[in-house]
Amino acid sequence: MSVLDIFPYLLFGHLFGDYVLQTGYIAAKKSKDIKVLGIHIVLILVSQLVFVFGKGFGVKEFIVIAMLSGIHFLIDLIKFHCKTVFCNSWKYYLIDQSFHLSSLIFVATFLDKVVPFLPRTVVSIGAVMIFNAYFIGILSHLIARNGTYKRDYIGYFMRMVAPVTYFISLWSFLIYALLCGYLISKKRSMFNLLNYVFTIISTVILLEVML
Known about the structure:
Order of helices and strands: HHHEHHEHHHH
Largest sheet: 2 strands, antiparallel
Structural class: mainly alpha
Strand order of the largest sheet: 1-2
Number of strands: 2
Radius of gyration: 17 Å
């Protein structure tokens, strides 16, 4: 498999472990307690193994995934020791996630013999759903300075629908975009606007790259 073939699986594993499996307790404590950070990394490792596992997966591939989790730990360790205001800003958040993304691309070059069991289409759509729900929600919150961050379940759902409609057809995605645009016009805020714009852009770009 090429880098583009295996990348959706690595991205899905990263996002699922980093966001879906990250409880409120882990999110609050991982930057203060090294043991909690360790639990977070173990969950990342398990998530990556589950989604990447398939034909051709062996000891070498396990070591590569373990190495990826180690890189994830080092990236998170930087924030663990960083206590400045900048480390809680949207700029640092983008830098942090850029490091994670780069590590996924780097590791993908060592997994060319693996053919994961899960269908690539399902994994790609799932990855964008999680990316939209969590990554974009947090980024928009940080930029808009939207008070204390809370899990926005209605927003999660609305952003997760986007890649599904895009996969169905461009017409259904257009209807989705128009409907969401109308709803946002009724409840305008910087946070909602950023969520909307980022969701549309990320859905198109990520699915065009991964599908």
